[in-house]
Specification:
The chain is mainly beta. Helices cover 14% and strands 47% of the residues. The chain has 2 helices and 10 strands, in the order H-E-E-E-E-E-H-E-E-E-E-E. The strands form 3 sheets. It has a 4-stranded mixed beta sheet with strand order 1-3-6-5, with no helix packed on it. A 4-stranded mixed beta sheet has the order 2-10-7-4, with no helix packed on it. It has a two-stranded antiparallel ribbon with strand order 8-9. Strand 8 and strand 9 (125-126) form a beta hairpin. The protein is flat, with a radius of gyration of 18 Å.
């Protein structure tokens, strides 16, 4: 009985570490536009990333701070990853808070194994085009 309690407690702790945005309510980076209300939080689903291989996303076009402010980045791992059952990356979500009605554009840049100043899509490969997400904040 004690062993079952320990296993259940460990499972609950692993699940409690999986807080953050709901993948059903997050906006995909490639959606092009997003609309949210003032005081809501926008979560941009950046897709799966693996920092161990050098996946890097950068916010290169800051939003209009009077409309939208950056809050945090959340890396979520599947239970199989946490238990070491499979090799996989994290699901990356980038959070923003809507502070006033208006429109702004977020611009993200992907780089592999480099920083933003010498961005590449791989060794010797030109950097991919930045990805824009237009955001409309309503009252």
């Amino acid at each position: 009985m004690r062993r079952a309690t320990v296993v259940l407690t460990m499972f609950i702790l692993v699940l409690s570490g999986c807080s953050g945005p709901d993948e059903d309510t997050a906006v995909s980076l490639d959606s092009g536009t997003a609309t949210i209300a003032v005081e809501e939080e926008l979560w941009v689903d950046m897709g799966e990333v693996s920092t161990s291989v050098g996946d890097n996303w950068f916010l290169v076009g800051e939003p209009d701070m009077e409309v939208l402010t950056e809050t945090e980045q959340v890396h979520e791992r599947s239970l199989a990853c946490n238990l070491g059952l499979t090799e996989c990356g994290d699901q990356l979500y980038w959070g923003f808070e809507a502070v006033a009605p208006g429109e702004t554009v977020l611009v993200f840049q992907y780089c592999l194994q480099t920083d933003l100043e010498n961005c590449e899509a791989g060794t010797g490969q030109e950097a991919p085009d930045p990805v824009e997400l237009a955001v409309v904040v309503t009252e």
